[in-house]
Amino acid sequence: MNTSLITNIKNSFITKFESEPIMIFSPGRINIIGEHTDYNDGFVFPAAVDKGIVAGVQKSDSNTSSAYAADKDETIEFSLNNLKPLAKGSWQNYILGVVAEIQNRSKTIGNFNIAFGGDIPGGAGMSSSAALENSVVFGLNELFNLGLSKHDMILISQKAEHNYVGVKCGIMDQYASMFGIENNALLLDCRTVQSKPFEIDFKDHELILINTNVKHSLSDSAYNDRRSVCESVAEMLNVKALRDATEFDLESIKDRVTPENYQKALYVIQENDRAVRASKAMQQGDLETLGKLIYASHDGLQNQYKVSCEELDFLVAQAKLNENILGARMMGGGFGGCTINLISKTETESFKTFVSKAYKNEFNKECSIYSIKLSDGTHLIK
Ligand code: GLA
Question: If you average pLDDT over residues 5-17, what whole number do you get?
Answer without folding.
Answer: 98
